Amino acid sequence: MTSHSEIDTLRIKARHAELAESLLPSGPLKHFVDGEWITGRGDDTFQSIDPTTGESLVGVYEGTKEEVNRAVDAAWEAYEQRWSETTPAERQQLLLTMADRLEARAEDFALIEVLDNGKPITEAREDIELAVDHFRYFAGAARNIEGKTVPHKELHIQTRREPYGVVGQVVPWNFPLLLATWKLAPALAAGNTVVLKPAEQTPISLLTYMREIADVLPDGVVNVVTGFGPETGAPLVSHERVPKVAFTGSTEVGQGVMKAAANTISDITLELGGKSPLIVAPDADPAEAADIAVDAMFFNGGECCSAGTRLFIHESIADEFVDAFLDAVGKLQMGDPLEESTDIGPQVSRAEVEKTLHYIGLARDSDASILRGGGTVEEGILAEGCFVEPTVIADVGADSTVATQEIFGPVEIMLEWDGYDEMVARANNVDYGLAAGVVTDDLSFAHRIAEDIMAGNIWVNTFNRLPAGQPFGGYKQSGIGREGAMETLREYTQTKSITMNLGDGQ
Ligand code: NAI
Ligand code: MG
């Protein structure tokens, strides 16, 4: 006899397979170089996996140095022949069209992200909506690249912001199309051409999007080469004709990108990991604080660089807060990310599941208390896919590995605090500095936290909010540079000073 959960598993698998069949082109998916779909020299392909079912979705060509070189050549040619001649108005128009094309098929793109990444459909829709808005934001920004004049008695000193030419971009798998947009939109607005490598776990949405915009994009302006980090990413970020590199991913790979950039003195933008604190003040309403904390931690299944992974709860409300928090965590629905009611889908890959379980194991081996979750679920689709239970861990030392290193899965570390200065010192005592949050109605407390925490983004009574226009990036080992905002244009341009003699010809 087939059990209920077996029937459910079969139903979910059939639903995913059907959707993949109707939405995805048949593979293997090719690289997009110079306006054409190419296989390159190598015939090697890899499979992009649906982490909910463990089934493969489509094959994708594995890029090598050769395809990267072709893409960089195409990008330079496009830059020199066409793109560097475009006006800001033309680039604005193109970016607006790119936004419209994405918006017109928003639901399809959201569904593709669900299939390829495993994120819940409700969150995937937010990704696409934000991506559309980022294209529109940078369409406007394209008209705002300005230089200045510098007062001088005998000289006329003028500055221009000029593009680098070709930009190399490498993006991760947690927000596949959104993070590609964060990089593409400002690079194009500033007048660069691009070679971009999506993550090997989630290449489908970007490749599908390139099909959607191929007829509006001049050849060679955006080139996409798919493949793995060492084989495809490394030749791109170390390419001698790529004077600007933008990378989002692990701190370890980010360090390699930085070293590679040293060889050619390339400019870099790095958006790396985090271990962000969320501070619950003594005046916070426990139920409201619990909702914010759940969202801070479990949004995108914890696969979020800014996730609020360290909860600092004031001792005076700890009991009430912990009850409310565990209650809210208990209500999170884990399951098929295509369901509207699902809060937590699978992690992106088996490797990420193993990494998360490894950290939970470290906590288990110490004196930590696992208050919720703590592993995988051996039942139905939850056993077949890459699912990890929402996990809450208490009684760990502030210096322990689980409390200081990025886990990147649904694992919250609970810490209590009493004295302000000591709490701030503990909150700052990690290598990362991407984000932080505070829940309080006390305005001066919020301001003090905002000043005292060393992080690029501080959220007050909210978390993980990243609208276009809000600069995003890290302090310390969380990165270099800011994305998503006007100042991002500075990351994609360089200053040229033009100095003219106004005097007697000297
Ligand atoms: P990763 O840093 O290896 O991958 C990110 C991107 O970099 C992918 O496109 C990958 O192909 C590329 N890449 C890998 N090695 C490269 C190299 N040598 N040169 C150029 N590009 C390279 O991250 P991975 O292995 O997927 O995830 C491991 C951990 O990294 C996660 O558990 C998480 O802690 C962290 N991570 C952080 C992200 C963030 O948003 N800051 C995003 C993804 C991962
Ligand atoms: Mg995938």
UniProtKB/TrEMBL annotation:
The active site is at 271. PROSITE patterns: ALDEHYDE_DEHYDR_CYS (PS00070), ALDEHYDE_DEHYDR_GLU (PS00687). Its EC number is 1.2.1.3. GO terms for molecular function: aldehyde dehydrogenase (NAD+) activity. Keywords: Oxidoreductase, Plasmid. It comes from the Archaea. Gene3D superfamilies: Aldehyde Dehydrogenase, Chain A, domain 1, Aldehyde Dehydrogenase, Chain A, domain 2. Residues 37-498 form the Aldehyde dehydrogenase domain. Pfam families: Aldedh. Belongs to the aldehyde dehydrogenase family. Homotetramer. This is Aldehyde dehydrogenase. It comes from Haloarcula marismortui (strain ATCC 43049 / DSM 3752 / JCM 8966 / VKM B-1809). The lineage of its organism: Archaea, Methanobacteriati, Methanobacteriota, Stenosarchaea group, Halobacteria. The gene is aldY6.
